[in-house]
Amino acid sequence: MFTRTVQLFMSLLLSLAAPLAVAAELAPDAQMKALSAEVIAAIRKDKELHAGNPKKIAELVETKVLPHFDFQRMTQIAMGANWRRASPPQREQLIKEFKTLLVHTYSGAVTGYRDQVIEFKPVRMQPGDTDVTVRSELKQAGAQALSIDYLMTKEETGWKVYDVKVGGVSLVTSYRDSFADIIRSRGVDGLISSLGSKNHNNEAKAAAKT
Fold it and tell me: Could you tell me the domains of the chain?
């Protein structure tokens, strides 16, 4: 059930695909709603995305989705207290590998979107707030509505996502226990190596599909 939930959520991440200049002009809830409508319409029309063209999917994720995420903060959250144990070069490598891992996950779920309906709720924020939660619901015929909450922070380039809660479960902190186990037995370099191996395997699988 959680795996299916993650797949649905990853498909919805494509709703973030839009120029940063446009996103920066909108309130976070308006940004999410507008971008969702725009990109979901594009997905419905794109046969290559539905067919799972790895190259096109990768280009879409790299150019449209990634600019809207704060991967440093996401990695720091996933690492928890172990973030302090990593040296600056290790932190840089961890961010790179974790980002790549998430990109492969997002890319693999592009074809998972069918005809779900997304409803965004007005965000509760005060003037000057720089950290907000944008709440939404995914509705699908024959299934119970699923809550999807985007935790966002205001940065110089606009609002960025640093965590998402699906059905109340944080997708970023869900990595924390497994990361801690690897660090406990193999150290920070062991975690970097483990993430690198997973990314290498994902790349090999993607290449085999082309």
Answer: 2-209 (3.10.450.710)
